[in-house]
Design goal:
With 293 residues, the protein is α+β, with helices and mostly antiparallel strands. 32% of the residues lie in helices and 26% in strands.
C-alpha cells in the first residue's frame, strides 16, 4: 500500500514552516527524518493534505553545552547523538539509549525531534527525556513555549504540541556531581520495539540516592516517570524498602495487553528492571538476588 495523494512544501526557515502550518492547520504534517511519518502514510494510518519538510532548516540541527545546559536541535539525528562527545560527557544515558533505537539505517535518518513529536509509548527517547528532566522547546504563532517533558507526552502518539506549533529544541541539565545512569529494555531482538524498558538518572550519595528519576516505557499510553522512585530517595535502601517500592510501582503502572505481553508480564518485567537498576546504581548485588525475568 502507498500513501494517498498529498502536496509537498520544503520550508526554508522556522518562520516559513510556521506560516505553512498556520495556513493548513490539521491538514499538514511535519517531515523531519520521516522514519515514523512515511510508514504511517504508506499504511494510510494518516493522510495529510500537505507535508511540510523541515529537513533543510540548519538552525534546527546541532548540539551545544553552555551554562550547565545541553541544547539539542530538533533535527539532530540519532547517529549524531550517538557520536557526540558532549552527549557522552553531559548526558551519557542518552548515548546508551540511542544505541537501542531500531537499527543503523533508521538511526542515520531519524531525528530527536521527530521521535519526541511522534510520541510512541514504546520508544526509548521520550522516557530518557523524563529521566533527564528535559525541557521541550516549541514555537508557534504565539511565540515560544517551554514544556517540561513530563507534561509534553499526553497519550498514545499524542503530545502537548498544537497543529500550528513546531518542536525546535530540547534542553537538558548537564549531569550533576555523583550522577549515575541506568538503561535496559526487554525486546524480542535488539532493535525491536521494547516490551518493557527503563531509563534512569540518579545522584548517588554514599550508599543512598540523593535523587532518582525512573522513566519507564512500553508500560502505558505514554512514558511514565515513576513516583515509586520517591520511596528510594534519601533513605537506606534495604530489600524491604525495595520491595515496598516495587509494589508501589506495580500499582501505579497501567500497561497494555497486546500480542507481545500480558499486563501481568509487563508489570513483572518493570519490577525486574527496577531491582536491576537500584542494584546496579548502588553497587548492591544483594538487592537483585533471586530476581529474574
Amino acid at each position: 500500500m502507498k500513501a494517498s495523494a498529498f502536496s509537498y512544501a520544503r520550508a526554508t526557515s522556522v518562520g516559513n514552516a510556521l506560516e505553512l502550518l498556520a495556513a493548513h492547520g490539521d491538514g499538514a504534517k511535519v517531515l523531519s527524518g520521516g522514519q515514523s511519518l512515511m510508514p504511517a502514510m504508506n499504511l494510510r494510518l494518516i493522510s495529510p493534505d500537505l507535508i511540510v519538510d523541515i529537513g533543510g532548516i540548519a538552525e534546527l540541527r546541532g548540539i551545544a553545552a553552555r551554562d550547565n545546559v545541553l541544547i539539542i536541535g530538533a533535527l539532530t539525528r540519532h547517529v549524531d547523538l550517538l557520536a557526540s562527545p558532549d552527549i557522552a560527557a553531559h548526558a551519557p544515558l542518552l548515548t546508551e539509549a540511542v544505541a537501542h533505537v531500531a537499527h543503523p539505517a533508521i538511526r542515520n535518518r531519524g531525528t530527536l525531534g521527530g521521535s519526541l513529536a511522534h510520541a510512541d509509548p514504546a520508544s526509548e527517547l521520550p522516557a530518557c527525556m523524563l529521566a533527564l528532566n528535559a525541557t521541550i522547546i516549541v514555537r508557534g504563532p504565539a511565540g515560544e513555549r517551554r514544556i517540561a517533558a513530563q507534561d509534553f507526552f499526553t497519550g498514545i502518539y499524542e503530545t502537548a504540541l498544537s497543529a500550528q506549533e513546531l518542536l525546535v529544541a530540547v534542553e537538558l541539565p548537564v549531569a550533576r556531581r555523583n550522577s549515575a545512569h541506568f538503561f535496559s529494555e526487554f525486546a524480542r531482538r535488539h532493535g525491536d520495539y521494547a516490551i518493557v524498558g527503563l531509563a534512569a538518572q540518579a545522584v548517588v550519595d554514599g550508599d543512598a540516592f540523593a535523587d532518582l528519576r525512573l522513566g519507564f516505557f512500553a508500560v502505558g499510553d505514554r512514558p511514565v516517570l515513576a513516583k515509586a522512585a520517591l520511596r528510594l530517595v534519601k533513605t537506606a535502601v534495604t530489600p524491604a524498602v525495595l520491595s515496598e517500592a516495587s509494589t508501589a510501582l506495580g500499582e501505579e503502572l497501567d500497561p497494555q495487553d497486546d500480542q507481545q505481553a500480558s499486563v501481568a508480564m509487563r508489570r513483572h518485567l518493570a519490577k525486574v528492571l527496577l531491582a536491576r537498576c537500584v542494584s546496579t546504581l548502588l553497587g548492591r548485588p544483594d538487592l537483585n538476588a533471586g530476581r529474574s525475568a
